[in-house]
Amino acid sequence: MMLAANALRTMVVRDTLKQLGDWSIAAENLLVGTAIQESGLGQNLKSGRFLGIYHISPQTHQAVWDKYLIDQPDLASHIRGLAGQRSFLNNPHQELTANLNYATAIAWMVYKRHNLLLPEDGDIVALAKIWHRYFHAKASASVADFVDSYQLLAGFEYEIESEDAIAA
Q: What percent of the chain is predicted at pLDDT more than 70?
């Protein structure tokens, strides 16, 4: 299953961010870029220990709940409401693969728990740096890989002035 970037953006990411009261174009671009980089927009929903379009590990999923949402009961309740009632109780990690809104909310929490200041909306290099630092800090992919993947699958033409911009 491969999603179209625009469909993911408008039908899932935007809606989920608005429900959480966190919508911005930059946040939307960051999450779409994350789905592109991590799973090729769903071409690979499971890779080893990583699950869903955002390739979130069960450990990261648990850490979001135990170390961030535990101190935010209203937000936790809202996100819990995005999950399926029985499926979440039986296998909460399966929600990362089967429920796009829930997976998007958890992916956003992976970033949000770091109290990030997002860059300008179209600064894909800066968003790539955020992804590389906070989402999968030990990722084998680079900032340049994120930018290249975003350009290819999101249909976003973004010129990089120099290689120095990526390395910084």
A: 88
Distance CA 14, CA 10 (A): 5
d(CA 35, CA 54): 5
8 A C-beta contact, residue 20 and residue 105: yes
Residue 124 CA to residue 129 CA, distance in Å, equals 9
- 100-119 pLDDT, tens digit per residue, is 999 999 999 999 999 999 99
Average pLDDT on 16-43 reads 94
Q: Cite the beta strand spans of the chain per DSSP E.
A: 46-47, 50-51
Q: With left for phi above 0 and alpha for psi between -120 and 50, is residue 42 left, alpha or beta?
A: left
Torsion of CA 162, 137, 83, 94, to 10 degrees: 110
DSSP secondary structure, 125-167, as one string = HHHHHHIIIII-TT-SS-HHHHHHHHHHHH------S-HHHHH
Query: In this structure, how many other beta carbons lie within 10 angstroms of the beta carbon of residue 153?
Result: 21
One-letter amino acid for residue 146 of the chain: F
Q: For the CA atoms of 64, 70, 76, 82, what is the dihedral angle to 10 degrees?
A: 50
pLDDT for the residue 158:
44
